[in-house]
Structures are given as structure tokens and as C-alpha cells.
Design a protein that fits this description.
This protein has 506 residues and is an alpha/beta fold. Helices cover 31% and strands 19% of the residues. A hairpin with a 2-residue loop joins strand 8 and strand 9. It is globular, with a radius of gyration of 25 Å. InterPro entries: Nucleotide-diphossugar_trans, UDP-sugar_pyrophosphorylase, UDPGP_fam.
Length: 506
């Protein structure tokens, strides 16, 4: 641990001596905690971080549209599509993906550094339940999808494959996530194949370029954004672990999408088939001004342009068929080769753009009193995972259907979008569609048929409650033998036990 003199020298070099202003008031335990925190800060990096934060905040304003003239959509030859690609191609890509999975070459990497603050809970988002009939959390749903896609690959190729699950947490989420997985026996996965690691924390900075103290002995820290992944891969020797396991391809995604297809064989196979080192799943924008980033190229380099950086007239541009020209909405669902991640970590991580977030950061004033600000007072700098697209030698995009693959959980109920209610509705509507497609018939309490409803609006509940366990079906496959011409009653929960019962009655 640093001595007090070493800590003083380090902070003076970075122009942050005020961090020790309450030193004389601290207990031995509090002093050691502060020295431990300072020891993790390199003076040169800290100096540059504080300078860049203050400078970036002074420039922080609405976009001026400078990128618009330089933007071009992703060329059609670099786009695959669940909706537009031929069924034969989708089958070829799926077969390729299953082959790579069966050979232990595929892993999934979860970005799980965020807390459930906006959901009104003090624990990590992955531990959240959207009140499905089964009561399953996001973590459990994702774990069971991994198990099922492994099983499908094993059956197809006669193997016993493993899809390692790497989970990037933060200082806030690591301990509760580890405990949650242990308490739930890793949801049936082998613990050695669930690898948790922690992303870096960086100081929050005031508009004057000074580090903010949240306590007399604690610096206000925040995760460095999901783009902190690339530094964390090196710091925690995750790339070495991947190499040791023989992993060549990574599916990277955010924790809050309840419809995410873990290690999607079609997406993996498409990217491998195209020889891509980097790929992104996208959805068609619902309308020109939808607040999602757009995947496109700028000066020949692929990147995600935030909706706030695009002028309305650019967002409204349409192609010859009337479709939006810039329609590829980013959903934080990516493919990377391990070699590409290694190159990014070694050569490009320092070049990643720093994004500014102006926040209300609780702090202690000069008298040591805790202040909860009523307006933004601090700067948090973040890197985004998609900012590495520009370094790709072969980038591709894969368009998927929003109603099948994208329903994020970001806000508490009461907000108009991305709530527990909308996430639950999306999953139950999907499972209802699967049951109908498999030939199931739903009856009401009087045993009368409920007319099937094959399409529903985003705000509309399906006519029945139907939940299908990922352990029974990964993406709607294998249900016909269970449900065809069967009469089902709401609420219908198709788990492994119910599947066995249906087989017996067939």
C-alpha cells in the first residue's frame, strides 16, 4: 500500500491534493481505505483524465450536424437479414454457427456493470425479475438459453461442447452477482465455465477539473462505460483464458435485453461465413426520430452515430424503395473474433473516444457535509463498446426482427417504454406466437376456443399467458411434437416437467 507521502506526491502530480483535505479527521481504517483507492490511480493517467473531462464538458452541447454529409449506410453486401435473406442462406449460416459451437470455439460475453437504479432496485439488473409466471430473472433466462443452444449443437454434431460465459461486472455488481450465481447453483451451468471479472472504475470530476469526494475518505467513482471492456480484458487476463479454452468467436451483449439469443448460431455463422472480424446485430428503426444509435460508415469507417448527433433532415432521408436510408438501429449485440479483441486491446484501446455524461454526483463540501445536488455538478467519462467498429478490417451487420430479439429493460413501470411490463409482454407474446406456430390451441375457462391473434401492437398483451422455458425451446424449435393439436389453457407454463407430460399424452 502507498505511504501518505507517496499518496501526496501522486496527487500533487495530478493537481488533486484536495483529496487528502480531511486526512486528519480519518480513522486508521478510513485512512487505509483512501490510500488503497489512491494506489489504483496512476498520476499521469489521472492528470489526463481530469483535464480531458473538464475540456470535454466545456464542449458538451447538441450536435452541429458535421457528420451528416460524411455518413453512408452499410452497403447491402455487408448486411444479412432474418427478414430479407433467403431461407437457404439462413440455414447455411445456422449450420456454420452450430459447427463452431460444437467445436468449443464460441463464447458469450455479458456486459453487466450496471445497477438497477432506474428500475428502483439496489441490485444488478441481471437479478431483476419482470414477474413472469415462472419468476425467472434475466440471469436465469440467459443461463438456460446457453444450456439449450449447447444441447442443440451436441445433438446436431454428436459432441459435448461448452459455451463459456464471461460476465463483466463493476465494483457495484461483482459481489452481489457472484453471490446470486452461487446461491442459485449457477442455474445448472458448470461454475468453471462462468468467468466473472471487473471493469475499471474512474473518478467523477467537477466542472473545475477536480476529483469529487463522495465521503471524506472516498473518491466518487463510476464504471468507465461498457467500452471499458477492452481494458478489462487485459487487466483480468481474460484474453489468455479465451485462448487457453480455444475460443475464437465472441457474442457480446448487454444484460437488459430479455429477448437476447445467446450465441445465436445464425448470427455467428453469418459473421464466420463472411470472414468478419466484427459484426453488429441491428433492428430497423421504428421511425426516423427514434432515439437509437445508427450503424453506418463515416469517411469509410464503420461506427455508431448517436441519434442526437444526426440532423432531423438526415434521419428522414429515404432510399429508392421508400425505406429509411439510415435505418440500422444499434441494439448492443455484437460479434468479435478473439484476434480482433486482442488487436483492440493492444493497439487501439487508448484511441477510443471518451463520451461525456453530465450527472448529479453526491459530494462532501469543504466542511465535510454530504450534499446531494439538485442539478448536475459532475462529469463522468465513458467509453462505448461499439466504438471499436472503426478498427475492423471486415465489418458486417445482421438485421433481426425487433419483436423477436430486442426488448430492453431500462426504466421502472410508469415510463412509456423499456419497462418490466413491456419486457414481460414482449417475451410472453413471443412464446404465444411460438405455441400458435406449433399448432397449439388455447381454450378459455368454458373450454371454448380462444381465437388466435398472430400480430399485436407493442402496447398490447397477448390474449393468453404462455411462457416456454428456454430449456424446452431456444427459439421456437421442437414445439410441434409437444403442442400440435393440443388444447392449452392460460396461464400455460411449458417447462421440462410439462414437456415430459405432453410427450406421455401424445
Amino acid at each position: 500500500m502507498l505511504s501518505l507521502e507517496e499518496a501526496k506526491a501522486r496527487l500533487e502530480t495530478a493537481g488533486q491534493s484536495h483529496v487528502l483535505q480531511f486526512w486528519a479527521e480519518l480513522s486508521a481504517e478510513e485512512s487505509n481505505a483512501l490510500l488503497e483507492e489512491i494506489s489504483k490511480l496512476q498520476p499521469e493517467e489521472l492528470l489526463e483524465h481530469c483535464r480531458a473531462a473538464a475540456e470535454a464538458a466545456s464542449r458538451h452541447s447538441s450536435a452541429d450536424g458535421r457528420l451528416d454529409a460524411r455518413m453512408k449506410p452499410v452497403p447491402p453486401e455487408f448486411i444479412g437479414s432474418v427478414r430479407k435473406s433467403e431461407k437457404e442462406k439462413l440455414q447455411i449460416w445456422g449450420d456454420e454457427g452450430f459447427l463452431q459451437i460444437s467445436q468449443d470455439k464460441v463464447a458469450v460475453l455479458l456486459l453487466a456493470g450496471g445497477q438497477g437504479t432506474r428500475l428502483g432496485v439496489p441490485y444488478p439488473k441481471g437479478m431483476y425479475s419482470v414477474w413472469l409466471p415462472s419468476g425467472k430473472t434475466l440471469y436465469q433466462i440467459q443461463a438456460e438459453r446457453i444450456q439449450k443452444v449447447q444441447e442443440l449443437a451436441n445433438v446436431k454434431h454428436g459432441t459435448r461442447c461448452t459455451i463459456p460465459w464471461y460476465i463483466m461486472t463493476s465494483e457495484f455488481t461483482l459481489e452481489p452477482t457472484e453471490k446470486f450465481f452461487k446461491d442459485n447453483e449457477y442455474f445448472g451451468l458448470c461454475p468453471s465455465n462462468v468467468v466473472m471479472f471487473e471493469q475499471r472504475m474512474i473518478p467523477a470530476v467537477g466542472f473545475d477539473g477536480k476529483i469529487i469526494l463522495e465521503k471524506k475518505n472516498k473518491i466518487a467513482m463510476a464504471p468507465d462505460g461498457n467500452g471499458g471492456l477492452y481494458r478489462a480484458l487485459v487487466d483480468n487476463k481474460i484474453l489468455e483464458d479465451m485462448e487457453r479454452r480455444g475460443v475464437e468467436y465472441l457474442h457480446v451483449y448487454c444484460v437488459d435485453n430479455i429477448l437476447v439469443k445467446m450465441a445465436d448460431p445464425v448470427f455467428i455463422g453469418f459473421c464466420v461465413n463472411k470472414g468478419a472480424d466484427c459484426g453488429a446485430k441491428v433492428v430497423d428503426k421504428a421511425y426516423p426520430a427514434e432515439p437509437v444509435g445508427v450503424v453506418c460508415s463515416v469517411d469509410g469507417l464503420y461506427q455508431v452515430i448517436e441519434y442526437s448527433e444526426i440532423r432531423p433532415e438526415t434521419a428522414e432521408l429515404r432510399g429508392p424503395g421508400g425505406e429509411l436510408l439510415f435505418s440500422a438501429g444499434n441494439i448492443c449485440n455484437h460479434f468479435f473474433t478473439r484476434d480482433f479483441l486482442k488487436d483492440v486491446a493492444e493497439y487501439f484501446e487508448s484511441q477510443l473516444k471518451q463520451h461525456v455524461a453530465i450527472k448529479k454526483v453526491p459530494f462532501v463540501d469543504g466542511e465535510g457535509n454530504l450534499v446531494k445536488p439538485t442539478k448536475p455538478n459532475g462529469i463522468k467519462m465513458e467509453k462505448f463498446v461499439f466504438d471499436v467498429f472503426q478498427f475492423s478490417k471486415k465489418f458486417v451487420a445482421f438485421e433481426v426482427l425487433r419483436e423477436e430479439e430486442f426488448s430492453p429493460l431500462k426504466n421502472a413501470d410508469g415510463a412509456p417504454l423499456d419497462t418490466p411490463t413491456t419486457a414481460r409482454r414482449s417475451l410472453l407474446a413471443q412464446h404465444y406466437r411460438w405455441a400458435l406456430a406449433a399448432g397449439g390451441n388455447f381454450l378459455d375457462e368454458q373450454d371454448k376456443p380462444i381465437p388466435p391473434k398472430h400480430s399485436m401492437s407493442q402496447n398490447e398483451d397477448p390474449p393468453v399467458i404462455c411462457e416456454i422455458s428456454p430449456l424446452v425451446s431456444y427459439f421456437g424449435e421442437g414445439l410441434e411434437k409437444l403442442l400440435k393439436q393440443k388444447n392449452l389453457k392460460s396461464p400455460f407454463l411449458l417447462d421440462e416437467n410439462e414437456a415430459e407430460n405432453l410427450v406421455k399424452t401424445t
